[in-house]
Recover the amino acids of this structure.
């Protein structure tokens, strides 16, 4: 699993625990120009062997996300991965088949595997009327989503093999597969691309163009979906308003973006199938050396950013004081 992050401190432990729970063996996270304490939190997780953290600060005006993904390509855990997936910290893969693990979606023992890559549709979740940020799992706070027929559901994230042969790794898909180096041809056994239900995509191959979404008749949430918590709480989203998108460097986070993501009223609690397994692995993560303390400090940083952007003083917010007190108590109790 590969991700690009900046100032996402309060949400990191949940996301890392989620993908380890699903069966991903390596989690690589690239950060840039952070102003919160998320790099320190990621370093603590790295010291415990849970993630690989790459710092990649980027000058103003330069492309962000694809530069960061490119910085991860030389890493052995990326280039030699059996299967590679790129997701953001607000995207959670949910698998409905079997026990809901990655091996229930992809036959990891197949030789050769039946496809080169699979694209999984978004299911976009709104704010569920939650105005305030709170320190609890995102996937348990927001349960109202856009339906399958919604335009946003066409967008995808992809999981694919043979990453070393791709000339470009993007947010939604790879491209420029080197067929000559791989010694294979498109259409050979295992050299097709499918949706999450296993249907072959007939009009795309990983040559020059990126695949960002599927046509309506290939959109499916039957076997798997990407729960995309695009907004989280109104307070958390307020930090995005007026900022440039790290992908296109444009003014993306406007009211129209919020309204589109918040348009769904379909109740979807499918992520709760993992409740027991998630609780166990999340507790394990928070028990790692210094992780709980740094998580509390990241929550304090998040509240501070919210309050100060709204023109207030962080010290006047009781949540800020509580997070700092929690971090101090954890430091005092550390061996």
């Amino acid at each position: 699993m590969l991700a690009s992050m900046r100032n996402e401190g309060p949400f990191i432990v949940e996301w890392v625990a989620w993908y380890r729970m699903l069966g991903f063996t390596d989690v690589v996270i690239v950060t840039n120009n952070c102003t919160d304490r998320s790099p320190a939190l990621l370093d603590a997780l790295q010291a415990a062997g849970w993630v690989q953290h790459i710092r990649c600060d980027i000058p103003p005006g330069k492309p962000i996300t694809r530069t960061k993904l490119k910085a991860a390509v030389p890493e052995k855990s990326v280039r030699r991965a059996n299967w590679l997936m790129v997701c953001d910290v607000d995207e959670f893969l949910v698998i409905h088949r079997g026990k809901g693990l990655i091996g229930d979606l992809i036959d990891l023992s197949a030789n050769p595997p039946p496809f080169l890559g699979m694209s999984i549709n978004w299911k976009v979740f709104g704010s569920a009327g939650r105005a305030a940020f709170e320190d609890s799992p995102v996937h348990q706070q927001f349960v109202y989503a856009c339906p399958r027929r919604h335009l946003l559901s066409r967008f995808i994230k992809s999981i694919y093999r043979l990453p070393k042969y791709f000339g470009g790794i993007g947010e939604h898909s790879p491209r420029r597969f080197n067929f000559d180096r791989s010694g294979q041809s498109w259409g050979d056994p295992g050299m097709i691309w499918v949706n999450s239900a296993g249907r072959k995509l007939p009009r795309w191959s990983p040559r020059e163009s990126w695949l960002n979404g599927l046509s309506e008749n290939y959109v499916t949430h039957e076997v798997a979906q990407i729960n995309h918590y695009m907004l989280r709480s109104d307070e958390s989203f307020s930090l995005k308003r007026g900022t440039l998108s790290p992908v296109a460097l444009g003014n993306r986070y406007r009211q129209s973006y919020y309204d589109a993501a918040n348009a769904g009223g379909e109740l979807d609690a499918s992520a709760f199938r993992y409740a027991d397994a998630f609780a166990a692995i999340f507790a394990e993560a928070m028990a790692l050396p210094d992780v709980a303390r740094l998580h509390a400090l990241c929550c304090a940083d998040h509240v501070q950013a919210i309050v100060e952007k709204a023109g207030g003083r962080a010290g006047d917010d009781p949540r800020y004081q509580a997070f700092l007190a929690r971090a101090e108590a954890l430091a005092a109790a550390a061996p």
